[in-house]
Specification:
The chain has about 180 residues and is α+β, with helices and mostly antiparallel strands. It contains two helices and eleven strands, in the order αββββββββββαβ. The longest helix is centred in the C-terminal third of the chain and has 17 residues, at about 155-170. The radius of gyration is 15 Å and the shape is globular.
Length: about 180
């Protein structure tokens, strides 16, 4: 079997204190579940050194709550550059459990995290845009990150990620959780 060159050899190695140090200044309530996205986490060990590459899992998404902490290999950029493609801007955005792929046949839809509020994206060649664009957090692919602007988790880690997020939301009686996207 050919190794998957789009996936790092390990999960992100950041500890709870490091995550808290990034979330607290953004006003994220550390007594509730939250997600941290770290764009370009593997910037100097994958792809072009010094660059945040598109189309590979060189980013990190971390779930943290008072009772859970887990890191996941992720992609926070679109898979490909093209005019008008949406890139989620760093900031704190609200997400909830919903269905990804509503425009697809029912057999291709699945549970994911969907926008629970407006987000701001940078559109290649067009500037910033704020609204409801379907910038979801969903399962990526093995040969592509499967993103037209969404945030994706490597498929080998997806089931663990969505199950843990749902369990923590239930534990804390929360319908939404903040997703804080930061740039390395």
């Amino acid at each position: 079997m050919t190794p998957n060159l789009r996936l790092p050899t390990s999960r992100p190695e950041i500890d709870r204190a490091g995550v808290d140090a990034l979330l607290a200044p953004l006003g994220v309530d550390l007594s509730e579940p939250a997600l941290l996205g770290r764009r370009s986490y593997y910037r100097d060990t994958m792809g072009e050194p010094g660059e945040g590459d598109w189309g590979i899992y060189d980013d990190a998404i971390i779930l943290r709550s008072p009772t859970a902490f887990a890191t996941f290999n992720a992609n926070t950029d679109p898979s490909h550059h093209h005019p008008g493609v949406a890139v989620l801007k760093p900031g704190v955005w609200q997400y909830k459990v919903g269905i990804h792929g509503l425009s697809r046949p029912a057999a291709n839809r699945y549970e994911a995290l969907v926008q629970a509020g407006a987000v701001t994206v940078a559109r290649e060649g067009q500037g910033d845009d704020t609204g409801w664009f379907g910038i979801n957090i969903h399962r990526g692919g093995w040969t592509t990150t499967s993103s037209e602007g969404c945030q994706t988790i490597h498929p080998d880690q997806w089931s663990e990620f969505i199950a843990l997020v749902k369990a923590e939301l239930r534990r804390y009686g929360a319908a939404t959780l903040p997703y804080a996207l930061t740039q390395r």
